[in-house]
Amino acid sequence: MNKNILILSxxxxxxxxxxxxxxxxxxxxxxxxxxxxxxxxxxxxINYCTGxxxxxxxxxxxxxxxxxxxxxxKMRSADILVFATPVYFRAMNGQMKTFIxxxxxxxxxxxxxxxxxxxxxxxxxxxxxxxxxxxxxxxxCLSNIxxxxxxxxxxxxEPGVKGTRVMDEAFTAGKNA
Length: 177
What we know:
Helix content: 25-40%
Radius of gyration: 15 Å
Number of strands: 6
Distance between the termini: 10 Å
Structural class: alpha/beta
Order of helices and strands: EHEHHEEHEHEH
Strand content: 15-25%
Number of helices: 6
């Protein structure tokens, strides 16, 4: 069965390590016949959540006029969500955190999804583990989420993931999604 996959890349660097892993996942998923879209959060206009709580009384949409409402609709339609981020100080970067905060209008509507986490860290396994824990804190607020995999690379300060085992791992995860 073909699935609708939405890849959310928080890399501020086009072609950065987490972004390259997203592309490998996309190639595998496309080759398998899935409908795949990748959104680079750095190329979107996404404001911070203001805490106005308008979405509590009107679930499904945010009052802010930015790119987030379109993305929220795509998230609701997706069967699989792929969250990708570089690690900054043992956590997801600011783009991803801002994005997650802005899912408030639909988080109760994001049930029955499969998720993958793609993480690129310059340090060792501890930054990956703490970032995965943060992602799991978010997905723990959703209902009936099935975590399908964590794809991570460590030890790279500069883009250098191309041609590595983890690129194959991302491609295979996309192909098997």
